[in-house]
Amino acid sequence: MRERGTARVRIAPELRFLLPRRHRGGDVSVILDGTSSVLHVVESLGVPRTEIGTLLVGGAPVSDAYRPQRADEVRVLPVMRPQALAEPRFLLDVHLGALARRMRLVGLDSAYGNRADDDELVAAAGQQRRMLLTRDRGLLKRRALTGGAYVRGDSADDQLADVIERFAPDLAPWTRCLMCNGILEEVPLDRVAHLLQPGTVRSYATFARCRDCGRPYWRGAHADRLNAVVQRAVDGNRADRNGSGCRVSPTGTGWRSGGTGSPSTGWRYDMTTTPDAPLNDDDMETVGHSVTGPDADTVDADADGTDSTDSDGTDGTDSDGTDGTDSDGTDGTDSDATDGTDSDATDS
Prior knowledge:
Blueprint: E1 6-11, E2 27-31, H1 38-44, E3 52-57, E4 60-61, E5 73-78, E6 89-92, H2 97-105, E7 109-112, H3 118-127, E8 131-134, H4 137-140, E9 148-150, H5 156-167, E10 184-187, H6 189-192, H7 198-203, E11 207-210, E12 216-219, H8 223-240, E13 255-257, E14 291-292, E15 298-299
Parallel strand pairs: 1-5, 6-7, 6-8, 8-9
Antiparallel strand pairs: 1-2, 3-4, 3-5, 10-11, 11-12, 12-13, 14-15
Helix pairs in contact: 2-5, 5-8
């Protein structure tokens, strides 16, 4: 194909972390082929379409389909925050189980399954009208994906803050089951007594139960720590609404969840550190239990207790240990001129 000169692509600072290290200055000269759209050019540099807000050429907005011309200067701006959603419904990929539980803690409708492959995730996001959350840039480049977002942050707490900053969703703490995403409803003791330890029955008077999986909840010693997690989310939500006040349903008081006490039949909170310490995975872990919840999103934790790292123990790097570049050392372009998806989709 005949070369059509070069164009200069200037990536906004907020998006440069997505670029290969050699391009993180944000000013990249690209060789044009005369047929690729500006969207394809930008994605080939490493920025998924879901993270692109506005594309400017010569200071004027252009569509994704615009074909860059010789000597064009393309500016790539990020999605404006907060990003409006018609429905705050989310779907999380297999590496974000810890984030899914925190999102449910603050009342966000968050489907998650730790065995769904990329094709299933893309299909489910469209069929269920959910925003797909992932750290897999290749997955976000799928043309069939109706809505997605790259989750920033290495810890689940930082990831929760990023989701709330980006979407500023209405929160309803303590209204969803952390295991299956079902809705919690207050129930009398006689509805759940057979699921509880005798000491729990003697010590607590207020209980809730998940409408979908039946798991009981009660206010336990963990409540102060979880309330702190919720309060941080509420405060972040308020800030992201520019101080206008966030809509939060004050229905929850810090439910504790448990089964009969057997590790093989239930899950628990294990609060072993101070109230102001970061919430870790042990504090919200599932213990040998799987539940099929709403939208058939089977939920459980990995056997080793991890649910946010890749199978090789890495955290967000590609299978070859690189920082997002392709195995051939290129800057994200595909040798077969496909739409930018990686064959193994492991850069989550």
